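Record Ion-translocating oxidoreductase complex subunit G, 212 aa.
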Amino acid sequence: MLLGLAALLAVGVLVVVESMTRERIAAAEYEAQLQALAAVMPVGSYDNRPLDDAINVVAPGWLGSDKALVVWRARRAGSPVQLVVQSVAPRGYSGPIDLLVGVDDARQVVGVRVTRHQETPGLGDAIEPRRSGWIDRFTGRSLGDPALGRWRVRRDGGDFDQFTGATITPRAVVAAVASTLAFVEAHGPALYAAPAGETLVFDGGPPPLPRP
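=>
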């Protein structure tokens, strides 16, 4: 009888410890995700929990991937403040480039960050903020600034610098950010209105950029 009680107590302790460990891991993961979003969604600009107020979108013509991507919604007092959109630049030099694009309710870029890429070290990896400040040149921009036809690298007649010896990588990122902005411009109300956890499917894509 005593052995049985001891075994039962031991199992109970293990269950409690395992539960506490799971909670700590979940809390750490949540904090890590918040930190990742902070670069494109300033802390203090919202009062909801964006990680819990997210939807999935399938929009290959707009966001560069056939897979479901995540859109996080930031709100203050229930009103829309900002979206953070997962997006993909499918035509990087060495493969797809995964992005987070923050867009505020005025349809201006709050920030852009690369979350995964395979670009050439020393050349294409200048899209990383630790390597250069190039990625921050999107901040504050919109589809009207620069004019739509100038959402290109300078070599193509646009407003955005390319890298020395590497044009394909920045060209791909500029195109992806412009397409993401166009997506939010076209579908922003639906993105904010959908219930958290829902998956939305969007056909079509942005019209071709006008000539610069």
